[in-house]
Amino acid sequence: MNDTTPTELEAVLDAAAQAAPALAASAPRVRAEALVAAADALDGAADELVPIAMRETGLAEARLRGELKRTTVQLRLFAETVVDGAYLDVRIDDADPDFVLGPRPEVRRYLVPLGPVLNFAASNFPFAFSVAGGDSAAALAAGSPVVVKAHEGHPELSQRTAEIVATALVAAGLPEGTFGIVFGRDSGITALRDPRIAAAAFTGSTGGGVALAAIAANRPVPIPFFGELGSVNPVFVTPAAAEAGLGPLAEAFVASVSGSAGQLCTKSGFLFVPRGADLPVAAPAAGVAPHRLLHAGIADGFRDRRERILSTDGVETVAGGDVTDDEAGAWATPTIARTDVATLRREREALLDEAFGPLAIVVDYDDPADLPGLVDEFFPGNLTGTIQTAPGEDPAGFTDLAAAIAAHSGRVIVNGWPTGVAVTPAMTHGGPFPATVGGAGTSVGTAAISRFLRPVTYQNAPDGILPPPLRDDNPWGVPQRRSSAGESASWGQLAASAGATGGGAA
């Protein structure tokens, strides 16, 4: 696929800017029906799209069909979110001449779309984090046009997906220019600097995300930038779990590390076990068939990280794995290394960076009481942290560890694995830097819509100029939270009551 020319880029950006006002004003049901239409169109094109994705990425058919389903389910989930309307966070404060701080005017507030969003697509999820993935779905649901900067790893798939989505959205009643795509690094950077782009999203490397975030922040008018970057997703095995036997856990660990050749942002990168624990990973690792890496850049990076980790003093190779080449690309099998906390501390520069591919490090620890501090010391920001416990184990033994993980990640997992992110309203797929950059947020789940919205308040505005969600007749039928006149006189009484009774309402 040829890079987008400056003339073509201008047309895409101008179309997005022209579409923005009409899209923002569109009724929720119109937007929701368009999202469902896009999902239906993608489902209908599965037999065309999946073979393209297999050829360009090397990912397996079953994985890609599942990922495409996840993508269309996500579009439908956001359709429900739009129709529900709670995401608009409508608040209406009635005029109150007796307000405790002096007369209060009528104040009405809701959230509005930012405007055109630039989405830098990912390579490792050619459907779910690419052209029609979560960032695009959330922005469209918010009422923002989307311009996708396609990933060079799957250009043909990107082009065809964009054509299908754009056609479906317009046919369902959204304005021309609601959805566009551009190709090439220079086009993406030029678009990021363009004043018509109001926000940007990115999924990829830490270096790339930080560089793009700097561009967004240093524009004459800075814009929000939401980047999902690197994560090593530590897993901690309690002594009781180790004593119960680690055979099944070892198999699940290898599956988490090797799935899709470890090219997942949620791959388990570190597994902490009590010193000397028998963790039989060699046999399940040896049973994993070679899997193609996505493209040459990832293969080169994985080779470098693998060589550096295995050559570090104090690191033992317990499952050697391999990386081989043929005419189709580079193929990898899982590599598992083992070390201890002292070596990890001494060699942190060599060992702690993400290894994007099928490699993980087992770390021996001595005292479970040290684990919360190790989270603070080694893992400042991750998408996930996991605790593996024994059946029936008392949660009191690992509450401090769970709290430490929560302080440094977006998702705390107990007796599960971070790979396989549920597309559901309560999901958080984000975390402190370097897991993400650009503020708190998530790129999976209905809360992802909030990244592309901003608040606007109307004060003493006549009904004729109020937008539909703020009007008393509420033509969109969205939830409205109202503060009536006179309420301020009783503020604080509920808290005082709760304090007197020793808790809240039953």
Automatic annotation (TrEMBL):
CDD domains in UniProt: ALDH_KGSADH
Name of the protein this chain belongs to: Aldehyde dehydrogenase (NADP(+))
Residue ranges of domain Aldehyde dehydrogenase in the record: 3-276
Biased composition (Polar residues): 481-491
GO molecular function: oxidoreductase activity, acting on the aldehyde or oxo group of donors, NAD or NADP as acceptor
Organism: Labedella gwakjiensis
Keywords: Oxidoreductase
Lineage top rank: taxon: Bacteria
Disordered: annotated segments: 461-506
